[in-house]
Design brief:
The complex is a heterodimer of chains A (about 240) and B (about 200). Chain A has about 240 residues and is α+β, with helices and mostly antiparallel strands. Chain A contains nine helices and six strands, in the order ααααααβββββααβα. In chain A, helix 1 packs across helix 3. In chain A, about 30% of the residues are buried. The chains are: A alpha+beta (about 240), B mainly alpha (about 200). At the A-B interface, helix 1, helix 3, helix 4, strand 1 and strand 2 of A face helix 1, helix 2, helix 6, helix 7 and helix 9 of B.
């Protein structure tokens, strides 16, 4: 009987294969099975009626506004604590002129430490583990970072170009991985939406990418090469 | 490699403008995602209440789940069921909360949490309209059976979809469903007999 009940239930839920359904429908012609099927329908109707009433309950407005609340708290600058020295070293080494248009990277006194740390952590973890094209966002949702392309260079090891977004400010940058496993930013450029339009209107296709400005003699990694590099922790 | 001619260097991202446009697309997708979440709220609240048996706890769970869904939206695959994905988040948060209560010495048995929640909220059923809707014989079902009934009998999930959403084997879904229906049918029978003096 137990087995028959389950079969009738599966028939009721349209979960049987065509053959099993035909067989069970034959069995379901007997009065006892018919009563069971009727009981299943009644049970579902009763539950559904109560469950549908729940949908009529008004949703608290604050629940909706919490979802719509997309405005980040404050801050218009994405900071990189301690990165200034790295960039300085890069400059001193004469590798490339670092072109940062728009906002310059700010010193620790002008940044929000908490946000800076969060962003730095996200950048490290994203560049370390995310394939190009994969979007990663920070815990509180304020930042989004997407690695765009990876390179193998002769003098700086692996480098990755990335795109970041925070509170209307979009940036594209380039970071390289040190032997100690840290990703250091070599170049970063701020692009607002308006600036983007200007680029396009002015024939922006000639704009140089961060990699183009900073790297020389780098080899772009293919999909499989990048996958292998991530899997092997960029060794 | 000629980096002075970026067009074509990065397929799909041939200029900084293209990169920015891609980010703008991401933002638009994020906005759509929020709209979809808002549209789902009545069903999310129903699922959560069915799970917890407690309106306040249910809404807290929905709130948390929506925050988490927004943070993890890049993990959701467009084209798959968003409702199922968020249900899974709600259920996992609920389990985490029960385990946390258990660690604090509140002696919550995760496996029978539904029945315990029903007992705790028995008084609230009189006060809360939402729980009132679920009161009666339906609220007598254990949590795990209520949720399976909701997914299959109400939301018309397949057994497989329900199993994936609840992260349990399909056989478990079927046994919970079977027990739930038998219990409801038994109650209907009792009610019918009482009504007819049988």
């Amino acid at each position: 009987m137990e087995n028959e009940f389950d079969k009738l239930m599966a028939l009721h839920d349209e979960e049987l294969s065509a053959d099993d359904a035909r067989e069970t429908e034959e069995f379901a012609k007997n009065p006892e099975a018919q009563a069971l099927l009727q009981g299943l329908k009644q049970a579902d109707d009763l539950f559904r009626s109560a469950a549908d009433d729940l949908l009529e309950q008004p949703v608290p407005p604050e629940m909706i506004s919490a979802i719509h609340d997309t405005e980040p708290r404050s801050a218009t600058i994405i900071p990189f604590p301690g990165r200034r020295s790295v960039i300085g070293l890069a400059l001193a080494a004469g590798i490339a002129a670092i072109a940062v248009t728009g906002l310059q990277l700010q010193g620790p006194e002008s940044i929000q430490d908490e946000g800076a740390a969060s962003y730095a952590r996200l950048l490290q973890s994203t560049l370390e583990s995310a394939p190009s094209g994969d979007l990663r966002s920070e815990e509180n949702g304020e930042y989004m970072i997407t690695p765009r392309v990876s390179f193998a260079t002769t003098d700086r090891g692996y480098c990755r170009e990335y795109m970041s977004y925070q509170q209307g400010i979009e940036r594209t940058g380039l970071a390289c991985r040190s032997d100690s496993g840290r990703w250091s930013i070599l170049d970063e450029q701020v692009m607002s939406s308006a600036a983007s339009e200007q680029y396009r209107a002015a024939g922006g296709e000639s704009q140089q990418s961060p990699a183009a400005r900073v790297l020389d003699g780098a080899e772009r990694l293919g999909f499989d090469e990048e996958q292998n590099a991530i899997r092997s922790a960029w060794k | 490699m000629d980096y002075a001619a970026p067009l074509g260097i990065f397929p799909g991202y041939s200029s900084t403008w293209a990169l920015a446009t891609t980010c703008a697309d991401k933002r638009e997708m994020a906005s759509d995602f929020r709209e979809e979440l808002v549209a789902l709220l009545p069903r999310l609240r129903r699922f959560s209440l069915t799970l917890t048996g407690n309106p306040d706890q249910a809404d807290d769970l929905v709130q948390l789940a929506c925050e988490k869904a927004l943070l993890k939206q890049h993990q959701w695959q467009p084209g798959t069921r968003l409702d199922s994905w968020v249900y899974r988040i709600i259920q996992n948060l609920h389990i985490d909360q029960l385990r946390s209560q258990s660690r604090r010495g509140e002696h919550v048995d995760v496996d029978s949490a539904g029945e315990l929640a029903d007992t705790r909220s028995a008084g609230a059923a009189e006060r809360e309209n939402m729980l009132g809707v679920l009161s009666g014989l339906i609220a007598e079902l254990p949590e795990d059976q209520r949720v399976v009934m909701l997914l299959i009998a109400v939301e018309e999930y397949s057994y497989q979809e329900a199993a994936e959403t609840l992260e349990v084997p399909i056989g478990t879904v079927m046994s919970r469903l079977s027990r739930a229906r038998k219990k409801i049918m038994s109650k209907i029978g009792d009610t019918g007999r009482s009504a007819t003096g049988g």
